[in-house]
Amino acid sequence: QVQLVESGGGLVQAGDSLRLSCAASGRTISTRRMGWFRQAPGKEREFVAAISWSGGNTYYADYAESVKGRFTISRDNAKNTVYLQMNSLKPEDTAVYYCAAGMVVGRMEVSSSYNYWGQGTQVTVSS
Question: Is the CB of residue 86 less than 8 Å from the CB of residue 20?
Fold first, then answer.
């Protein structure tokens, strides 16, 4: 079992920055990857970014409202914590952001590759 607790969300203005944190506990030694997903009201959950637990390889979403270039995922293995630095925030970034841990072989951007999920943290960006 792995427990994930997100923090760092809040209400900000367009152009501001936020850093989300995800603290992992439990059997983290089996973790292959950590990811961030988000879900806006009325929309499906979508992939944001992921990082391999040991190698530090990163992967970012590449869709229309891309976060690549604005968001940075990183990890501190000593603290069992993954971060999502979000810069130049836009109103369309408003969503609940979820941290996830994946133990099985799979694609980093696919939600089914993740076994454990946090409770989510709200990010609201006003225009």
Answer: yes
Mind listing the pLDDT tens digit for each residue in 30-82?
A: 788 999 999 999 999 999 999 997 767 899 887 656 787 899 999 998 899 99
Element (H, E) at 127: none
Tell me the C-alpha to C-alpha distance, in Å, between residue 65 and each of 43, 50, 60, 92.
14, 17, 12, 8
Residue 113 neighbours by CB under 8 Å, 6+ apart? 33, 35, 102, 104, 105, 106, 107
The pLDDT, as a whole number, for residue 28 is 81
DSSP string, 21-68: EEEEEESGGG--EEEEEEE-TTS--EEEEEEETTT--EEE--STT--B
As a residue count, the chain comes to 127
Cα-Cα-Cα-Cα torsion 23, 34, 77, 75, nearest 10 degrees, comes to -90
CB-CB contact of 50 with 39 (8 Å): no
